[in-house]
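ok, trying the design again with the full structure, not the truncated one.
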């Protein structure tokens, strides 16, 4: 048994190294037309969506949080659960074929709904980076937090993925009768991440900029974790995106065990800014069917799902789909590139 465990460990190390190599080779070089993304993945239950995701032939996979359900402050436990996910044959095939980037939410952070006071956050961050195949020399390894940015594609047709860490620096929330109370003075990103984000947006050469968070950006009405629990921080984020003049910003999020497409229109975004939530690779929340959301476009989806973005560079538009088992399409949204 010991020799088998050693072989499995060495196999996982090799796969991580191959994943990091693939990421490095694809960044800034090859054309990019399809991006798949998703969240909320239990490593020890059936995972029926990897095959349809692979069949879509994406150029990139983005993890958006709860990539495993670690839920433990014990790093050996998290490490074993990441290893179990890496050993899943369909996910291993995706890793071998597609570059992968991502960010965490709370269950892979180690404690449900935790923030900056979580004592094991640095050790947990390093395990997440190992899982994602982040190279030892990557700049994100040498700073606090799990945030990062990646550019893919050729000049003039580039996509930038900005992965925000909504855990490591997040202030405390109070919960009353299962409802999170607003914390107007609290923050999510922390000073260093804010400065980094402003620079990444202001200096981005990309035609499309995907801004990713484990928790939802736009919704204000539901009782759970969201940027609106820190209302000043949410407004600051929208202000920073608008004032940066970054090209075609689009928000992506996970966490909710549902999928939905949203749009905000206001003075900052007269043509609208979209958010696509895709959550529930292995499980969903059927009780959300009646949840209100003033920003929702179309229907709330409470089925196993993943997101797919298909970029039509010739016609200058990007099509987002929420998809499920067998490649079923549950929602579609075309967004013209400005």
């Amino acid at each position: 048994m010991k020799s088998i465990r050693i072989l499995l460990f060495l196999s996982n190390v090799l796969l991580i190294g191959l994943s990091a190599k693939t990421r490095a080779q694809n960044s800034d070089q090859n054309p990019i037309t399809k991006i798949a993304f998703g969240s909320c993945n239990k490593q020890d239950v059936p995972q029926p969506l990897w095959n349809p995701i692979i069949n879509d032939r994406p150029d990139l996979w983005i993890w958006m949080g709860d990539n495993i359900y670690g839920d433990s402050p014990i790093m050996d436990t998290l490490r074993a659960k990441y290893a179990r996910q890496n050993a899943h044959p369909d996910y291993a095939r995706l890793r071998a074929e597609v570059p992968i980037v991502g960010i965490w939410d709370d269950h892979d952070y180690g404690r449900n709904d935790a923030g900056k006071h979580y004592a094991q956050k640095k050790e947990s961050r390093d395990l997440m980076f190992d899982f994602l195949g982040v190279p030892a020399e990557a700049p994100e390894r040498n700073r606090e937090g799990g945030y990062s940015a990646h550019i893919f594609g050729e000049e003039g047709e580039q996509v930038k993925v900005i992965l925000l860490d909504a855990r490591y620096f997040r202030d405390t929330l109070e919960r009353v009768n299962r409802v999170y109370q607003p914390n107007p003075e609290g923050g999510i990103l922390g000073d260093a991440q804010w400065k980094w984000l402003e620079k990444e947006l202001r200096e981005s050469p990309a035609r499309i900029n995907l801004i990713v968070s484990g928790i939802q950006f736009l919704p204000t009405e539901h009782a759970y974790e969201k940027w609106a629990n820190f209302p000043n921080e949410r407004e600051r984020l929208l202000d920073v995106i608008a004032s940066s003049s970054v090209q075609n910003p689009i928000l992506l999020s996970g966490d909710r065990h549902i999928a939905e497409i949203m749009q905000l229109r206001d003075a900052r975004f007269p043509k609208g800014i979209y958010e696509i939530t895709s959550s529930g690779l292995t499980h969903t929340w059927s009780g959300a069917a009646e949840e209100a959301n003033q920003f929702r476009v179309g229907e709330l989806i409470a089925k196993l799902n993943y997101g797919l973005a298909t970029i039509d560079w010739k016609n200058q538009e990007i099509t987002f789909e929420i998809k499920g088992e067998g490649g079923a399409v549950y929602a579609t949204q075309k967004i013209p590139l400005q």
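Keeping the full-length input from now on. The chain has one domain: 2-336.
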